[in-house]
Design a protein that fits this description.
Five copies of one chain form a homopentamer.
Chain A (H helix, E strand, L loop, with lengths): L31 E7 L4 E6 L6 H4 L4 E7 L4 H11 L3 H8 L6 E4 L4 E9 L8 E9 L3 E6 L7 H9 L3 H4 L2 H36 L4 H33 L10 H63 L15 H22 L4
Parallel strand pairs in A: 3-7
Antiparallel strand pairs in A: 1-2, 1-3, 4-5, 5-6, 6-7
């Protein structure tokens, strides 16, 4: 029952701050470093194995997007850090995958860290991937935990776009990456929506079981987790907009605001779904009560009809010597009349009370 | 069970930002573009089919109100965008009908997007229509999803008003449009009020059924949805008031504040109704408990009266050889006395406990 | 069940803004306009029928308090508006009785609108009256829906006070009027207190019925309504204090702060009572559970005692040929021993479980 | 059931503002005015009967602390007001004992009003006393409702302290008084803690009765009341710290911040206890449910065991002529086997379901 | 049941402010004072017994870390206070172990007080230790209640780090200490997580008992306590960052921000766990209801099947002279058919209702 979300202990507790250790689950054993270097006229894509190969891009005029997939190999991050003069604490944050989304401003670079979310199939068990961005004058570093194709559309745009995209700076690339990460969440919300619909249908059709309750609780918890990583994004982008760093061009602001709008819409959707789930819980609890009510009614109807009748039979089962009725010929059929009419009267009564 | 409200996924996820696609349900297949051009002395109304016909109005002194109904034809928005120099992201927002209400300020124009709400008959299933406004110096563009008569009163005022309205600028026209959209919500709230009254009456009269619970939950959810689109309007107008754009005249401020007051009243009404619905849920749950209580009382009364009596008949139904009472002549009538007096005593007891 | 509070639709929906129509219930068919004109040395009171009679007071040095009771006659408000240059929207607000309390500042006058509340007897069904104030240099206009004596104490003070009151300006008069309106709410809270005490006593004495639940819900709703109109008063007065209009003298500030204190005390009292009522709901729900518990105990005691005994009688009511006990002389009395001792044992057991 | 807390009506409602009347319960019929006049070298203590005796202290260099106990005699406050030039509304606030804690700044004096709280024995029924302070250059007036020894420790310190205390100004005296008032609340919280512990023990030991529920509700309400008067103290002291009045020396700020820390600790403690009490309510409600569960189990066990057995005896109590079993010799003992084994089986079943 | 958390009374209530008394539980009878004096090149560690031995370090250039473990001996704090010119109220705060986390700025030193938390084994009963820090130009005083090894890692770093750590100032040492204290909380949260997992497993496996309810409540309460001491840390560090004291170097800011991030993560984790525990309570309450439902079903099934059958046997147990069925040979076997078929029909019915 221990979810990914809750284990938050830094394995580093007790260690000196500033020591570089990867904290979190290892999703990709092998590190893959891929480069996309582009200018208005040209795009180059390659994979490198040694950090030293990055050196020529450092001072070139072209925009270079370096993607590091897999964080298990600490030395990669360390070398990048020393080559580009990144603060020790930033490197630590890149490696420790329990960061909250945040934006930090340094003289020569900007640091953004946030979470990529994946709904993970039918069961809506969200998996989180930490994504860190370093935005420099002509370079963007992207650190991911896993190897996947989240940014394929952005890469495709760079390859195909002639004029516009490639003539814009590294800040526009950063925006495109953020946009891709955040728009992933729309899919997540659709998936959540589906999960809720399934539960709703079960609640309406079948009976309230503990299994449904557990599923409702699990969904609730997943949403709390999602919210935790999505809601700071709004603040993150606000800080980017307030930042006066020359690394973010004035023209990019409108794009960032657009991303911010998307983030707000996602946050609101999450809140809405939280409310819906709370409503499901209410329905669940009410269903349990209604079920009990129904059970009680059946019991009451049965008992109230047959207990008086049994009493009647008890009377004429007694062995007194002087019971004149026993001799009367029509007594037995008359009693049968009572056996039929009493339930009739009671059934009408229960009907009027809407118990049947 | 999947409501219009929840499906919020941008179908564009994964696409490059800046590509114009209509996102949302298609409410009107055919686009209708109508123009209302007026000055202090004159009003002209016409429908156009080609965007090129707008050209003469661009630079004229008169105020021109262009209404575009139906968003399925993306090229219409695109052409307007390029003719009037509208930012790509604004055009996207116009076409993507999942926007939150917002206000954006540009050098040459202001962009407002919000939702028109329609209560949709007895069942209170609200339908939403996205309405976008572009306010320029002498022009107002209004983009709607559907063809309807929401703005007929405003048009009527333009036609009939001699002096006042037509001598005021495009910002006053914008205000009038906003006012018409927001005042629609008063009708919505009346409709909501009616729906609640119906449920209340059912709760008081009949018995608590799962159907009522579902209706309460559905209302609750609709209100959450309405709130989501109405509450940002307050902020939207605040931003308009704070804006220092020359496109909004100082004199129009008092009118905007009036709209803002209306919006606040609507938001408060919605909050009030949310509270009332929560109260209904409490009453519902209490009713279920009370019903159960009542059932239990009936069962208890029946069982408590007849079980002891049956025990008595059981005693004298035994076949022991030596049961002196069986021979006594008055035993049987005496027992009948007990059969009558025991229930009497118990009924008095239950009466005193207020169970009957 | 449709309360005055909820019907908030502007009957004007769809109308052009700026058209003067009275919106709300008509409380007084006939309009009464009374004037109180005073200076340090003199007080004049009269009733007028034509707005023209106000003309001489407009430019006089004395302070003039004009009270308009009844809003059904729109033309009265219209004429005052044109005589004193009041903005069209202000006139609309005066006539539309669904306003939230608010303060608006204009060059030549200040506009205040708020609600007078009346607890309305034992049942605590609050009635609301909209009161609008126009504060000018030497005049105060007061518009009310009903004819009543709420401001009699203020009038009395003007008549009797020699020096102090009459030498202070129109702003002090405004303060006195506000003070009178707000202090009415203390009576309202006392009345609410009484209504709660009645319910509390019923809850403690009798049994929990649906009627009590409905009364609790109704009170809750009334409080929500009261809060809605009282809590903005705090903000209203803050705005008056922040206002830099020369119409409010610096010396009046301390008096306004005093009114503000009263408003805060009232708001806090309302919050306190809301908490108390929520507590009542908890007690109610618990009472229902306790009642059910009690019913169940009675049933269980009866059933558990007599069902085993009946089983015993059943055994010896069987007709087997070979049942040796039936022949034993002491069998029947022995069984009676069981009939007495078994309930004894069970009663002790139930006593120990605190069911009796 | 009507608590001291709730009756908040100003008996002055309807009266002219500015008229001096004592509002509240009369705790002390007789007014006692005591003076403590001290300088670095000397302390004088005396009781006076006429306000005129205060005159010499007004302009002396020494610091004079005047304590007025009992507010029934309005003229005392009135005379002090006119002798020291206190604003009419301040005098009203001193006399009306329903004030919220607040701080007001005037040119020549500062006005502080707050509540002294007393837990009042085992039952935790808090009593409130209004304490008003007037801080002038060399004088401090303290108005109390009751005669008690709350400030004895402060007086003792003045008497015994040689250097430090007596060389500090009237603001330090004010601080000491505030400190004494606020530290009283720690005792209150201990008392509350004890009351909660008693309830907790009862809940764990005995069974959930309505009496416990009422006690929980009463505690909850008392806490709401305490919170109401304690939480504004934080703001009060913040305002004193922000004040730029020369009457509060810069050096006293650190002491006031210390008092503020105490106030925050008390407020947090109160919040904590509110949470604890809500938890008690949850436990109470759960206990009721558990109790019901237990009752139901007993009923079910009894009924499920004996009802089938009684059915068996019923079969062989029938009078059919052709019932071969009745003749079989071992039938009766065999049936006894069933009478013993059926309950055995059922008991094992119930045991496995953990009902026993 | 009275937890450490709640007893908050200052034993000093009634005492003069400024008198030094140790308030709180005595954790360490004997005071231990240890010194760690280091410069870039050298580290000295020693224990001292007299405060006088600190004198040489006061004016030396090296950085000196003085750890005082145990607060029972008031004179130690007093002497340090007078030797280094610490304000009386700060000394009091060090000795009174009921402080909220806070930061105070003085001319020559900064004062930080916060809580070290320890989860305390399986039961998750958190124990709190107050830790006070005095940061001066070249000295750091650390006051603790207990003797433990919380800061061993920091000491180790000082001993082993050649260049970096030891060349940074006293503010970096302070940061390292804060970091160590706050990172302790990650362990606490893991421990909390484990405690919750245990309860979850019990809830899913076994049945809902009062013991589980009590454990849930206790956890909830512990979390409230933890939150109380952890959440102000965020504000504390914000104040340190806003402080313009020269004692905190600009370069240390990024480290403090890092600590702040950790604190936020911990606070969010706590909130998350609070939500989870509330969810557990919901599951608990639902489980109780479900259990009751199940009990009721068993009772209803038994009663509904056997009560009608018993009635049948009652009929033929009657002693009427004229009951023709009694003579029919096949009557008895026919009845057995009914005895078998009636339960069959009912069982199918109950099955369809999903009661079995």
């Amino acid at each position: 029952m221990k979810s990914e979300l809750r284990g938050q202990t830094s394995h580093k507790t007790g260690m000196a701050p500033g020591s570089l250790v990867h904290v979190g689950n290892v999703h990709a054993q092998q590190v893959r470093i891929s480069i996309m270097d582009y200018s208005k006229d040209d795009v180059n894509e390659l994979e490198i194995t040694s950090i030293q190969e990055l050196l020529p891009y450092r001072d070139s005029e072209t925009i270079t997007w370096v993607t590091v997939e897999g964080l298990a190999n600490v030395s990669v991050v360390e070398e990048i850090g020393s080559m580009f003069g990144i603060h020790q604490l930033v490197l630590e944050d890149i490696l420790n995958t329990h960061q909250r989304p945040k934006f930090e401003e340094f003289e020569d670079y900007l640091f953004i860290v946030l979470k990529g979310l994946d709904a993970g199939g039918e069961n809506f068990s969200v998996s989180y991937e930490q994504i860190s961005l370093l935005l420099m004058a002509n370079m963007v570093f992207l650190f991911k935990e896993k190897k996947d194709e989240v940014f394929a559309p952005v890469q495709q745009r760079i390859r195909t776009s002639r004029g516009r995209f490639r003539s814009l700076g590294a800040d526009f690339l950063t925006y495109s990456i953020l946009d891709a990460i955040i728009d992933q969440n729309f899919i997540l919300i659709d998936s959540l929506d589906e999960a809720i619909t399934v539960i709703e249908d079960q609640l309406l059709a079948g009976d309230p079981s503990n299994a449904i309750l557990n599923r409702i609780q699990r969904l609730k918890r997943e949403i709390v987790g999602v919210r935790r990583y999505v809601s700071p994004i709004r603040e993150l982008i606000s800080e980017m907009l307030r930042s006066e760093s020359p690394l973010i061009d004035e023209k990019t602001h409108i794009y960032l605001r657009d991303v911010s709008d998307h983030a707000i819409r996602i946050i609101e959707s999450i809140e809405l779904h939280r409310d819906i789930i709370s409503g499901l819980l209410d329905i669940y609890i009410s269903s349990v009560s209604n079920k009990m009510n129904e059970v009680m009614k059946v019991l009451t109807v049965f008992a109230s009809i047959f207990i008086p009748l049994t009493f009647l039979t008890g009377i004429y089962g007694m062995n007194f010597e002087y019971m004149p009725e026993l001799k009367v010929k029509w007594a037995y059929p008359t009693l049968w009349l009572a056996f039929i009419s009493i339930p009739g009267v009671l059934l009408v009564y229960f009907k009027r009370k809407k118990w049947l």
